[in-house]
Amino acid sequence: MPALTTVSVVELATGNTLAYCSRRRGFNPVATAAHQAELLRQQQQAMAALALRGERLEDILIPFRKQLQLFRLAKNGQWFVFLAVRAKNTPLALARELLKSIVA
pTM of the prediction? Predict the structure, then answer.
């Protein structure tokens, strides 16, 4: 995918980066993974507080002006994939399908 800027696999409990690939200069996978893991843990806590029984977090989208950031949890809930793409070159549906295929 030409518009792909970053993809990483992160352990949710620890925030450790398991694997990554980035086209961004200066990308620090260790620092960003810890923040991303915290974001997902906070969302899970919010879901628990809302008593959303039977629901499962599928993915999270953070749209920026120039970039789309997507997060998707693995079915076992132990790790997730972070995907960043250029917003103007990537349809959201395509980014979600790519993310889904990586996690599947």
Answer: 0.88
